[in-house]
Amino acid sequence: MKYLKLIRFQNLVAMALIQYLIRYSLVIPAYGKTTVLGDTAFGLLVLSILLIAAGGYVINDYFDIQVDTVNNKVLVGRNIKRRVALILHAILTFTGVVLGLYMAYSVGYTIVGLIIPISAYSLWLYSLKLKRKLFIGNFIIAQLSSVFTIFLALFEIPQNISHPETTRLIALLCIYALFTFLCSLMHEVIKDLISYVGDKTFKIKTLATEWGISKTKRFLKYINISLSFMVIIVSISEFSENITALSYAAITIVCPLILTKYWTYKAKNKEDYTKISKVNKWIIFAGITSLCFFI
Asked: Which of 104, 168, 240, 254 lies 20 to 30 A from 111 at CA?
């Protein structure tokens, strides 16, 4: 169980889920089953990005021992030896990179596959030093989240570039990538508010420690409003006659966004921000499962 916590098992399940939902709700309906990656190749590419993401979680905890100790969420060094964590990171990342590059080469898209080692290196660099630089770390994680969201679809588009459905598919992928980016950015900023005490103690530059709590809350409000408008506009444009889809978007995404906006305004302590973080995770999950309406 402690190792599952270290690699954030729930997050990995969500990552795998969105890959398969994009495949079966957007890509295959657009192109058909015969012109896309085979099930085995697709599954192994999914596994490669999950391994890299898991390795990123491990190395992030490895470098965050002191701050996590202050914030009472330390795992590496207490429940798991530092040496074991470092070895686990190396095994996960190396396996993920090699597997991903091999599969990209085997299906003829080596250049696209280069995103895999670049992402692995970015996660290492983020954990080592970039997360301690104001906003850069938040932006990198949000950007990687959006890249991972649409990464496997990039293997499908080049060979179908002249297909009449390609333009719409690219537009939908960009929408979901932007949704993931904004939700992930919100999540990262909320995490900064949760770990404010530890970050302040070790002089780590985050929006919360540099801007102050009030200004950081306003920043979250603007992201929240942008997300709400995006969801409303896309829902109406894509599902104007589908009452079920519109109701789903309103109840499971827009209403929780409004709730987090209100709770963020009222939040005063770590427990409040932790509650907001949980709702934000639900919004991400609801956004992922909304892909089912395209089937």
From this structure: 168
